[in-house]
Specification:
It is built from 11 helices and 4 strands. The chain is mainly α. The chain has one domain.
Length: 290
C-alpha cells in the first residue's frame, strides 16, 4: 500500500481539479448562457459524467490517504489504521458485472488490428435524407447542403461497426451500412481504429470510479476531447466559425488526412485501454474474470 500524506494527496487533487476545469469551466459558462456547442457538449451530454464528478479526484486501489475522513462520505471507501483507502471488496460486490463486461470488451478490442477508412461517414448517415429542421445540430449549416450530403452517402461505402453510432443513423441510411451491429454483438464488433470506441474509453473509465485513478480518467477524457474534434471536423457540418476547419472526407485529400489522424488516435488509445484492463485485473483478480 502506498501512503500519501494530506499535503501530498491535496497536491494531486488540486492538480486534477485544475486540469479538468479547463474543460468543465467553459462548459458550465456556456450552459449558463444557454449556448450549445456541437463539439464539446457531446462530452457532457452523451457521456453522463457530470462536471462535478469529473473534477473529483480518486487515488485508485492500493493507495491510503492520511487524514482524509471526507472520503468516507463517498461510496466504496473505508477507514484503516493508516488512513482511508478504496474498499475493494465493497466495490467488487456491487460492480462485478460491470468489471467483467468492461474487461471483456476492452480485451477483445485490444486483440484486433485497427480497421481504418470508415472516413467518419457515421455522422453523414445521421443526417441522410433528413429535413433541415430534423438535423441534430441544425444551428450549423451542412457544408454541402442536404442534397450534397445525401450524394456523399450514396456514393460511399459505409462500414460502421459501433452500435452506439449506428443506432443514430436515419432509417434510410441503415440499410446502406455494410454492417448491422447490435448491442449483443458489441464484443464481436468493436475495434481499436474506431473513433467512438476510443472516445468510449472515457465512459469505461468513469463507470469504474472510484476504482479508476483520476489521472487515468483525465487521460481518457482528454483523448475523447481530441477525438471528438476530428469526429466533427469530418462531419457534414460547417464548424469553421467555431475554430474547426473541415476535414473534407468527400475528397481524396480529406480521406487521407482522416485515416492518418484515425491511426494516430488508435496508437494513443492503446496504452489507455491497457491501463483500464489492468485496473479491472487489479481490483477483481485475473482468474475470477476468466
Amino acid at each position: 500500500m502506498e501512503v500519501l500524506s494530506r499535503a501530498e494527496w491535496h497536491e494531486l487533487r488540486d492538480a486534477h481539479v485544475a486540469r479538468m476545469r479547463r474543460f468543465t469551466g467553459p462548459h458550465q459558462e456556456r450552459k449558463l448562457r444557454k449556448e450549445k456547442h456541437p463539439v464539446m457538449d457531446f462530452l457532457f451530454t452523451y457521456y453522463s459524467h457530470r462536471p462535478v464528478r469529473l473534477e473529483r479526484w480518486h487515488p485508485g486501489p492500493g493507495v491510503v490517504l492520511e487524514d482524509a475522513a471526507e472520503y468516507l462520505e463517498f461510496p466504496h471507501y473505508k477507514a484503516t489504521p493508516e488512513g482511508v483507502t478504496l474498499d475493494v471488496e465493497s466495490f467488487v460486490g456491487q460492480r462485478a458485472k460491470t468489471l467483467e463486461f468492461v474487461q471483456g470488451l476492452l480485451t477483445a478490442t485490444l486483440s484486433r488490428p485497427a480497421r481504418l477508412g470508415c472516413f467518419g461517414l457515421h455522422e453523414w448517415a445521421m443526417v441522410y435524407r433528413q429535413q433541415p429542421e430534423e438535423v441534430r445540430h441544425n444551428a450549423w449549416p451542412l457544408r454541402l447542403g442536404s442534397g450534397g450530403t445525401d450524394q456523399v452517402v450514396e456514393a460511399s461505402r459505409i462500414q460502421c461497426g459501433h452500435f452506439d453510432a449506428f443506432r443514430f443513423f436515419t432509417r434510410p441510411a441503415r440499410p446502406r451500412n455494410a454492417l448491422q451491429p447490435t448491442r449483443d454483438e458489441q464484443l464481436l464488433n468493436e475495434q481499436p481504429g474506431c473513433l467512438h470506441a476510443n472516445m468510449d474509453l472515457f465512459k469505461w473509465a468513469y463507470k469504474l470510479e472510484p476504482a479508476t485513478p483520476s489521472d487515468l480518467v483525465a487521460d481518457c477524457f482528454e483523448l475523447a476531447a481530441d477525438v471528438r474534434e476530428l469526429d466533427m471536423q469530418a462531419s457534414p457540418y460547417d464548424l469553421a466559425g467555431l475554430g474547426y476547419p473541415p476535414v473534407r472526407i468527400e475528397t481524396p485529400e480529406g480521406r487521407a488526412e482522416y485515416v492518418r489522424r484515425q491511426a494516430e488516435f488508435a496508437e494513443q488509445a492503446r496504452p489507455l485501454r491497457e491501463r483500464l484492463i489492468f485496473v479491472c485485473q487489479s481490483i477483481h483478480g485475473v482468474t475470477s474474470l476468466r
